[in-house]
Amino acid sequence: MNKYICEFIGTFALVFFGCATVLFMRQEVGLVGVAFAFGLSVVAMAYAVGPVSGAHLNPAVSLGFLVSGRLGSGDFVGYVIAQCAGAIVSAGVLYLIAAGKAGGYDVAASGFAQNGWSTYSATSAFVFELVATFLFVTVILNSTAPGGAGALAGLAIGLTLVAIHLAGIAVSGSSVNPARALGPALFAGSAALSQLWLYILAPCLGAAAAGLLQRNRAIGLEGAAQPA
Questions:
Q1: pLDDT, tens digit, 9 for 90 and up, residues 152-194
Q2: Distance between CA atoms of residues 69 and 159, nearest Å
Q3: pTM, whole model, 2 decimals?
Q4: 176: left (phi over 0), alpha (psi -120 to 50) or beta
Q5: What are the residues whose beta carbons fall under 8 Å from the beta carbon of 108, sequence distance 6 or more?
Q6: Contact yes or no for 69/76 (Cβ under 8 A)
Q7: What value does the mean pLDDT take over residues 46-55?
């Protein structure tokens, strides 16, 4: 149970710090600040809860671990439930904070840090989310594997997320995380919910591909280690 509590807390923190920056400080810090808010949140949680749960904080990451053979199906279900619950509760807390704004907070006019596409097409957003998640999960799987980045894994993963946000916020809102997309969408309304499918399907496909690549790599290394 401790693993699931850690995933809940870690995902709560990721959504809280990242989406709070979008909601309350975007004009002050800009898109670069938003990118670092999400990335640094991952770094912090990697070292805070990583020793217990691995700090997936993301159903797509957990799927990558499942496909690679490094996470059991029971833990996968528990992780996803905890991550989605953490994201939803975090979004609820942010909604409560936003409601206290002087003059009120108009979600319809200002949005609620939800992911979405408008300037670029749905195809562009889908391709970005798929490719970015594939690269993100590849970094995570390899940096946390035996012989990987070791104590620096959390930093490598967080900085990769910063790079992803810098590259794709304008294209898709840069989610690469179904739980992060789900929480704010539930409070943002029907328009965000109608686009939510993309932020579930594309990251999961990218993560599954990364997990399959890692699994095949591990099998290849194991075979190479066998005596002739």
A1: 999 999 999 999 999 999 999 999 999 999 999 999 988 999 9
A2: 25
A3: 0.93
A4: left
A5: 189
A6: no
A7: 96
Q: Which of 209, 221, 79 is nearest to 138 (CA)?
A: 209
- Whether residue 109 is predicted with pLDDT greater than 90 in this model: the reply is no
The predicted pLDDT at position 178 comes to: 98
Cβ neighbours around 2 below 10 Å, total: 9
Share above pLDDT 90 across residues of the chain, in percent, rounded to a whole number? 87
CATH numbers and ranges of domains, the chain: 3-216 (1.20.1080.10)
Determine the pLDDT at residue 108: 85
Asked whether the beta carbons of 171 and 128 are under 8 A apart, the reply is yes
Position 222 scores a pLDDT of 60
Using N-to-C axis directions, what is the helix angle for 73-98 and 178-188, rounded to 10°?
40
- Look at the chain and count its residues: 228
**Cα distances (Å, whole numbers) of residue 161 to 11, 14, 101:** 14, 12, 30
Q: Which amino acid appears at position 77 of this protein?
A: V
Between CA 34 and CA 43, with CA 39 as vertex, the angle to 5 degrees is 145
Alpha-carbon distances, residue 152 vs 47, 156, 189 (angstroms): 10, 6, 39
CB 207 within 8 A of CB 64: yes
